[in-house]
Amino acid sequence: MRFKLLISLIFMLALILFPLSIKAAPVPWDSTTYSVSAIIGEHFIDAYDSDVDSGSAPPVSAFASYFGSPALSEMTESTIHMACSVWIGAPRCQTIASFTGNFIANDSLFAFSSSGYMNNLMVENVTASTTLFDQFYSGSDTLFIPIQIGDEISVSFTRDTGEHIYHEGSFDFTDTYSMSVVPEPISSTLFIVGGATLGFRRFRKKLRKQ
User: How far apart are CA 19 and CA 61, in angstroms?
Assistant: First the structure.
């Protein structure tokens, strides 16, 4: 009876400690590229004014204007700010932000979350030449994508305003996003339960000797 009670206590302890064991860690990026663009005009390649900026580290910022109609796109390692305001003389406004990065996996899961949607989010295992995720991201839940420890992983996404503002209209918003690596929950739970069980067995042996 006591043995069953103690086993139950061990599992209860595992459930309590489980959330503490799943700690997100920064992605160990080997290379990154942040890029933004802002366009005022009728077509992407026929803009009245356009600006682009990119770099291996944020922040990056692009600003374009046409007779008082501004377009702004800014990106940091955790935010994307886009603003646009057009009047009837500037028929189109668009802003774009994108990211690409590579790293060697040192944990079992890649986690991605954002307060806004992404036109595309792609996660690839470069070592195995496989695509792990490639689709529209709605910005509703955190994604946990299994990755192979020791393999090279590639991540890319684009935030495009999509709703190209024609003639008169405006928008101004800031999305937050985050990327991290975390251990696989099952492995963490087994580690906690195994450790607790081993400690319990040692404790029983000491009691028997006494």
Answer: 38
